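1st attempt posting a full record on here, be nice pls
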Amino acid sequence: MQVSLRNSKELEQSVIDKIEEVYMTSFPANERIPFEYLVMKTDYFEINGMLAVFCDDKFAGMLSYIKEQKYVFIMYFAICEEMRSGGIGKWALHLFHTTFKDVIYIYEIDKPVDEQTKRRISFYESLGCVMNDYVYLLPPLQEGNAPFPMLLGSYPLGISESEYADIKYILYHKIYRIE
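the predicted structure (as tokens):
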């Protein structure tokens, strides 16, 4: 199995369509921003990178991220449903973790409320992510949504209180642009 990450700016529209499909089917509406914000620069929300995950040259998923200061925020990561549980996600994140040096990777992860969310947390922990004990509310990403409680995972180390304050400021004021 050979996993690779490819920049969406270098991909055909048919692959962008697949990224949109996996994005829309993998994340609940209250955790999604409009897809067009993921693939183009806007005044509201700018993703520094959108990557397509491939396994043996077949489209397998997507990863979007923002790098700010010493942090890389993994905003959305999903593997196509029919390709999950085969190790592709693990290999993709191992590969992505080599992209930037001397950074802390930050993951916004659903709180454990059912089997799926518990499995997701176990998946990230198996990669070496630390589930930090700070209260974090994902702000409403679309009009009419309420804030949503999330966990903040970090890789390769846990975060301190001062780092949490920095991360929360970046998320709320620079990424989500909440006043």
